[in-house]
Amino acid sequence: MRSDKARNREAVLAAAGRLFDRAGDPDEVSMDAVAAAAGVGKGTLFRGFGDRLGLIRAVYDERVAAELSAAEPSAAGPADQALDLLVRTWRFKRRHRVLSLALERAGYGSPYRNESYAGLHATLAGLIARARPGSPAGFLAHSLLAAVRSDLVEHLSDQPPIDVEAGLRDLVGSVFAEARGRPAA
Fold this sequence. Notes:
Layout (H helix, E strand, L loop, with lengths): L2 H20 L8 H8 L3 H8 L2 H17 L9 H18 L1 H10 L8 H17 L5 H10 L3 H8 L6 H12 L10
Helix pairs in contact: 1-2, 1-4, 3-4, 4-6, 5-6, 5-7, 5-10, 6-9, 7-8
């Protein structure tokens, strides 16, 4: 990658990240605003990222790589690994709420159609299948991920405080209950 192209990419990602961090709503961050904040032309954005969704994905993927994917390998069991992943995902989405909402809203009209969701789903489905062979692991993984959707994170931010992590612990416990020798409800 040419140095000016790499420099522009870094400037655009940093500017878009700052704008999403300051915004109250994803729709407040336009391509025009990103181009102006990065000091580049709008054509540079489209050549580098394709469209607004491509830009959102690039900013999101950069942050996921820096923060969420950095988990240490664990000797913990599948239920503990699933809980850790969901708690880290919740915290990430709370920290990056507008960016997370932007990605889920822009995911071709569905929060389920983006690479980040697909990766989380595959990881959770694998953990469930390992702990509960023969279970509907794919469906159960979707069900767990529903608890960390960005729109839920956003909704609960306006509600009286609740212990989200305790709720996630109970939810994961119920999904993995058969694997721990307890009958599922």
